[in-house]
Specification:
The structure is a homodimer of 238-residue chains. Chain A has 238 residues and is an alpha/beta fold. The first copy, chain A, has one domain: ComB-like (putative 2-phosphosulfolactate phosphatase), CATH 3.90.1560.10. Helices cover 38% and strands 21% of the residues of chain A. Chain A has 10 helices and 11 strands. In chain A, the strands form 2 sheets. Chain A has a 7-stranded mixed sheet, with helices on both faces. In chain A, strands 3-6-4-5 form a 4-stranded mixed sheet, with helices on both faces. In chain A, α5 packs across α6 and α6 crosses α7. The longest helix of chain A has 16 residues. Chain A is globular. At the A-B interface, α7 of A face α7 of B.
Chain lengths: 238, 238
């Protein structure tokens, strides 16, 4: 199995190949939050890139999660905190979801043969799924306005480690090697490693530091969210 | 002084600001080779992005260095090895130069307030120049077909270390932090660190591994190449 990493959505065209299994990652916080809402019983996520589209869904009666610049949008039911999406609120419902970077990364990767959502919370389930189904994996990091970030990059290294533990893995590029090296630095204390990162600072400034702990906790859910190209919804593979 | 790094030419638009001092880096080998030819007495470098343009200069009587895919182009006087550009061949001459990634990175950064060429060979001279002249620095990594590479990234970390030794430096982004962390890993043995990198493999496959040693040697020349936006030539600041 080949594992590669596109460190920014803007670089994805230079890393993609046909027949890839693409894993969209936005550790702080969109991909972690999507895993959480499906774990808590949401039947599907409808990712949308634009705020106006999310507002139309809202007026049609959908539950809507919407975040821009680390804050919940006023019109929405939820923001981008994984704790917003309790079983009481989302079980049995479809949730429309738009965030600054995460849903844009999904749009970028939407034509991949298979598109999955990854986070530390589902890293074990994701690894097992990939070992069974994937030949070449590209971790598509959401980054921040197309800039690379530390948290998505180290996730790539963590996934590489999980996959390596289960079989033969070929490192696809220098980008994947960067991720591997940074994860070796980070794994003993990911939170400490990220204290100086750009987005951790943004979370602190917006009172969301509690989310960061959850976003860096491994194996809290056992699901693999899969994007369906036909109806453009994300559902759980069980 | 703020120091930032654009890990790929495709990401430069997301890192650039007005009034930047931009440093184009293509460690294996274009930026090292440019430093070498100016050190050896070439009066100017005329960077061109396209092979056809280089051929026109050649038929007009210019000396031409041209490389694609790690190999010297047949029509050219030189390839991309720093050892091609001896004082006997280049002193007092202008040299037209085109390479797979390096000259394209120059084109990307050509509108910066100031554009410099950086390599390990001139890192000391470059640091001193920046401390005197720059407020915000962006290291523009040439990469490989817009993919990031290890050697350009660690150079960013090495430059950051040199600048930090001389005064207060602010790290501009997670990308700069990645470079800093990787340089800490690499600095004891940069060649060993890069043995597994993508482009080192390409150099070996093309018999150019001897160049790699030179490209990773610090402070072998004392010049700062500066791109002149008016006549689009690169000359030495002495």
């Amino acid at each position: 199995m080949i594992v590669d990493i596109a460190p920014s959505p803007a670089l994805y065209p230079y890393y993609r190949q046909d027949n890839d299994t693409v894993i969209v990652v936005d550790i702080f916080r969109a991909s972690t939050t999507m895993c959480r809402m499906l774990h808590n019983g949401a039947t599907a996520i409808i990712p949308v890139a634009e705020i106006e589209e999310a507002k139309r869904f809202k007026s049609d009666g959908y539950l809507v999660g919407a975040e821009r610049h680390t804050r919940k949008c006023d019109f929405a039911d939820f923001g981008n905190s994984p704790f917003d999406y309790t079983p009481e609120r989302v079980a049995g419902r479809e949730v429309v979801f738009t965030t600054t970077n995460g849903t844009m990364a999904i749009r970028e990767g939407a034509n991949a043969q298979e598109l999955l959502i990854g986070s530390f919370s589902n890293i074990g389930a994701l690894s097992r799924y990939c070992i069974e189904h994937a030949e070449r994996i590209v971790v598509l990091c959401a980054g921040w306005n197309n800039r690379i970030n530390l948290e998505d990059t180290i996730f790539g290294g963590a996934l590489l480690e999980r996959l390596s533990a289960c079989g033969k893995v070929t490192i696809g590029s220098d980008a994947a090697r960067v991720a591997q090296l940074l994860w070796l630095e980070a794994k003993a204390d990911p939170m400490g490693f990220l204290m100086e990162s750009e987005h951790y600072g943004r979370l602190i400034a917006n009172g969301a530091e509690g989310d960061a702990t959850y976003c860096l906790s491994s194996d809290t859910v056992e699901i693999v969210p899969i994007y369906n190209r036909m109806d453009k919804k994300i559902r759980v593979s069980r």
